[in-house]
Structure formats: C-alpha cells, structure tokens
Design goal:
Helices cover 85% and strands 0% of the residues. It has 119 residues and is an all-alpha fold.
C-alpha cells in the first residue's frame, strides 16, 4: 500500500487530551524558564550593583584606615624619638655618676694606701 492509500488514523479523545496537557505543560515550562531567566538576569544586575557599592565603601574605609594608620605611625615615631632621647640622657647621667663613684673610690683608696707615717 502506498502512503496515500492508508486509511487515516483516528486518535482517541484520551490521547488528544493527554497530548493537549503535554503541550500545555511544555508551554508553561518554557514560560517559567523565560520568566526565571529574566528574573535571574535582573537579580544578577542588582547584585553586581550592590557589590560595586560595597566595594566602593570598602575602598573608602580602607583609605581612611590607611590615613589613620599613617598619622598614628608618625605620632608613635615621634614618641619613640622622645623616649630614645630620655634613655640616652639617663644613660649619660649614669655614666657621669659611675665616673664620679670611680673617682671617689680612687681617692679613698689613695688615702687608705698612704703609709701612716708619710702623712
């Protein structure tokens, strides 16, 4: 039999209903996919914008912190220089005291070592 000679196929009402439901579900899936894709795209755009804002805020805060740390470092260096000078002054004073004590000890030794009859 040739294709033109075949009798036409008849679909049952149940099969037609099942196919209609399938087509409807496929259409709903496509619609949902397109809708979700659009929503995800807009969410991505919003998130990128928010990330940019947060990044800019963080950069600003980091800049402020760098400035504060720089001024703190300068202040600490100044304080360290003052303390270093105070320590040097104290060490110099101790050296002078030690020299005075050594001189006093020499003089005392010289007095004690002088023969009793020679004085």
């Amino acid at each position: 039999m040739t294709p033109a000679a075949r009798p036409p196929m008849k679909l049952s009402q149940e099969l037609i209903a099942i196919l209609a439901v399938g087509v409807t579900l496929t259409g709903l899936q496509v619609t949902l996919f397109v809708s979700l894709r659009g929503e995800m795209g807009s969410m991505e755009t919003r998130l990128r914008g928010e990330i940019g804002v947060v990044r800019d805020e963080m950069r600003g805060e980091m800049s402020v912190l760098r400035g504060e740390m720089g001024s703190m470092e300068t202040r600490l260096r100044g304080e360290m220089n003052v303390l270093r000078e105070d320590v040097r002054h104290d060490i110099d004073a101790l050296r002078l005291d030690i020299q005075d004590i050594r001189e006093d000890v020499r003089q005392l030794r010289d007095k004690l070592l002088v023969p009793a009859g020679g004085a």
